[in-house]
Write a structure and sequence with these properties.
It is a single chain. This protein is an alpha/beta fold. It is built from 13 helices and five strands. The protein has a five-stranded parallel sheet, with helices on both faces. Strand 4, helix 5 and strand 5 (101-104) form a beta-alpha-beta unit. The longest helix has 27 residues, at 109-135. It starts with a strand and ends with a helix.
Length: 257
Amino acid sequence: MYKILLVDDEKEIRYGLKNYFPWNQLGFEVIEECENGKEALKYLRDHSVDVVLTDIRMPVMDGIELAKQIQQMKQSIQVIFLSGYKDFYYAKEAIKCGVLDYIVKPGKFEEIQAVFTSLKEKMDTTVKEHDILIDSQSGQKNYTENIIHTIKTYTQKNYADITLEDLASILKMSPNYISTYFKEKTGYNFSTYLTEVRMKKAATLLTDYHYKTYEISSLVGYNNPKNFTRMFKKYHGMTPREYRNRNTLEVADLNEQ
């Protein structure tokens, strides 16, 4: 079972989520609940958890500051926001803080189930990859796999504003060496991999009609929407608008069947 720390200043919300949602069926359990970010951080200093499910607006310390503090801890803790605020600002701040997903209150059963089912698949894959690294032969092969895995994992979590300098700080290598090393071991440039991660995330965000195209552009790391549109079309073979319209038609066709 993966362990969840639930953080929300509303006692009724905490009680309902902890006791009425079938976490164990999805492979999770709520092991502790806190009423604000400061209380949650205190708990995290002495206990290990896999997921923090937190409200955004709370007294003492809000969810955004909590997510920033968790990111600085450099631990593999997945953070998911639960909030009644659909404002673009919060979604943008969430991605900057490495937040995995964002559930709007009141969280529908199907939405929570979908988010945590996807999360479990991701975490199971990470565990398997880690086990493969541990069990593989020692030496250069293990070292190489570890480095590439670290680069890809960090990129997938911080794609919006990642730089080679960030990776250099983590891996204790120069930015130029990381770029050359990645190309040598994978066969493609780091910039190509980063673009792939961003374009896949952009495609996912386009299925959520709360976001405008220019907002998605910013969320995946493009300050210029025109550059984003050009890159999206190059990668997916169509513009973001065309992609969204096609997805709408596909959903409509499914509903008619």
